[in-house]
């Protein structure tokens, strides 16, 4: 378990349907934020909000609803244990996820607004599970200390320079234009990521790789030579990269920015609550009684489905689940 922040984490997008009226034979239609009527136009043909939501409902609605029901079963369990997560609990997990290297990487691959919504949902799920785990399978001090020692490199890091490399494609003029717009921001800024996605809509060749070390830069001498000359937070000029295949004639361009990071020394006391939650979740996943109790709650839950075509979902939860309890 090398990265505690990533324990049991899978970023998933779920479609939430709210019943604001439903025509017979159609999906419930809700107002989408920022969308008036049409979600897209293709060669003059509109894709309406109703058409879009009906497609999602018909193809992914049952899976989404099943996932939401499972979430509510766990939430009710937390409430019964007097362990419902507070706003502060959820904010702690949100901060932990956003502090992880994986988040920094994903934030430059996935639209920031979409990713933050996914993180918010995930943080709540993790807070619910952690609070249940702390009640039913609390971590021992010896387990917390052991996990801290095994993952000490995550909490104690030397002073270093982290580089962000932005790949700009093979057109030098376009690369220079994009570099001019991107280099107005620090790669740590939300504005940088927003600009990155704005430019990517026009040129899919543009991409960014954060948290790169000087060792990784060794793979391209031209990039490294430019990077090591940079001041803290400074962007390089557009660099012509060394071809990975000497026989190719296609050129590739990039820019790089280096940011100095201070030495990090988080003590066990600094991260005790964080590690305690993770150890408790691990303990819970190995607990046979928890799996049996979860299955019992699934089969005994009072579930009412108000979408006729998914009404059999309630019966599916009443049936024994061979994989119940698997986390």
Q: How would you describe this structure to a colleague?
A:
The protein is of the alpha+beta class and 327 residues long. The protein has two domains: 4-152 and 266-318, no CATH class; 159-262, Chitinase A, domain 3 (Roll), CATH 3.10.50. Helices cover 48% and strands 12% of the residues. The protein contains twelve helices and eight strands. It has a four-stranded antiparallel sheet. A two-stranded antiparallel ribbon has the order 1-2. The protein has a two-stranded antiparallel ribbon with strand order 3-8. Residues 1-26 have low confidence and may be disordered.
What structural class is derived from the secondary structure elements?
alpha+beta
Specify the overall morphology.
flat
- Main sheet attributes: strand count, strand direction, barrel closure: 4 strands, antiparallel
Q: In total, how many domains does the architecture comprise?
A: 2
How far apart are the termini?
15 Å
Map the helices and strands.
Blueprint: E1 38-42, E2 45-48, H1 49-80, H2 87-98, H3 101-106, H4 112-136, H5 141-150, E3 156-157, E4 160-169, H6 172-182, H7 190-202, E5 207-212, H8 214-217, H9 221-227, E6 239-240, E7 253-261, E8 264-265, H10 268-285, H11 288-300, H12 312-318
Antiparallel strand pairs: 1-2, 3-8, 4-5, 4-7, 6-7
Helix pairs in contact: 1-4, 2-4, 4-10, 5-10
